[in-house]
Amino acid sequence: MPELAEVETIAQELKNVIIDNKITFAKTFRKDLRIPFPDNLCDLLIDSTILSVWRRSKYIIIDLSNKKSLIVHLGMSGRFYAQSNLTIEKHTHFYIETNKGSFLNFIDPRRFGLITLVDTDKLSESPLFSHLGPEPFSNGFTVKYFAQKLSKTTRPIKNVIMDQEIVVGVGNIYAAESLFRSKIHPERPANSLSLAEVSILRDKIIEILKLAIESGGSSLRDYRKADGEKGGFQELFLVYGKKGHACKTCGSLIDRIVQSGRSSFFCPNCQK
Q1: Residue 41 host element (H or E)
Q2: What is the pTM of this model?
Q3: Of 27, 41, 78, 177, which is least packed with CB atoms within 10 Å of its CB?
């Protein structure tokens, strides 16, 4: 699933292509997505101008001149990218054409993605956003806030930092990489972390996400940037997907366990 870094990369790239474009045409191709398109989606989009593109958690938000916001979630395998010449692929479910010759194409082979429309002034009240915790880069994600949240639960720390109500956008890849760089075992009870460890982990989450965004995200299978190219952060993985490889710090073999149905990679020597 595309995580914060991948979604932020796409949003930033789309800004350079579609801001101030007017939507002249929109089309949906099938109704059997996990969450169906709104019935009047295309009619509401046509003739509106794209004012801004930004990200909240793992959602791309496109604000429009008609006071609506187009919400895009890529699900497990979705892609949302710009083209100068439209290519309808096998799993294209939706596209937009603009007056400046750009096409936005939504492709989702597994159909777990989401495209919907929300009143811009009611975004924060939407069930998609109302429960979310702070952004990792925001002033709200302080050491004090983080420590208070961790102190209230005995859940494994990896599960907690992936909880979108605690902090948004930290998925499986970046949780593993942040914990490794913090020398914290993914199974540690969250309330067992010292204040110093909480501070280090917070800093590493921010550091890893910034580095991943600078690298264009991580391309493992389906993810591509808005220009269709692969991201590069997978070349910088230290533990994720590295079971049996030597730890770059101590030489011990990276191990793998399953937590809540997800693979967790860690160094049994470095991470305590």
Answers
A1: helix 41-45
A2: 0.91
A3: 27
Structure tokens given for 85: 């010449």
In CATH, which superfamily holds the domain spanning 4-125? MutM-like, N-terminal (3.20.190.10)
In the DSSP assignment, the letter for residue 120 is G
Neighbours of 257 (CB within 10 A): 15
DSSP letter, residue 39: T
Point out the residues that are catalytic: 2-3, 58, 262
Instruction: Quote the CA–CA distance of 66 and 120 in Å, as a whole number.
Output: 9
Radius of gyration of the chain from Cα atoms? 20
Show me where the domains of the chain are located: 4-125, 143-266
* Structure token pair of residue 206: 């921010």
- Report the alpha-carbon distance of residue 189 to residue 224 in Å, rounded: 35
| Range 98-102 contact pairs with CB under 8 angstroms and sequence separation of 24 or more | 98/18, 98/21, 98/22, 98/23, 98/24, 98/50, 99/21, 99/22, 99/24, 100/21, 100/22, 102/17, 102/18, 102/21
Angle (CA) 261-266-272 rounded to 5° is 110
Q: How many CB atoms lie within 10 A of CB 87?
A: 10
Q: Strand ranges (DSSP E) for 109-152?
A: 114-119
Fold of 143-266: Helicase, Ruva Protein; domain 3 (1.10.8)
pLDDT (tens, 9 = 90+) of the chain, 272 residues, equals: 788 999 999 999 999 899 999 999 999 997 777 888 998 999 999 999 999 999 999 999 999 999 999 999 998 888 898 888 888 888 899 999 999 999 999 999 888 899 999 999 999 999 999 999 999 999 999 999 999 999 999 999 999 999 999 999 999 999 999 999 999 999 999 999 999 999 999 999 999 999 999 988 887 666 666 676 777 788 899 999 999 999 999 999 999 999 999 999 999 999 99
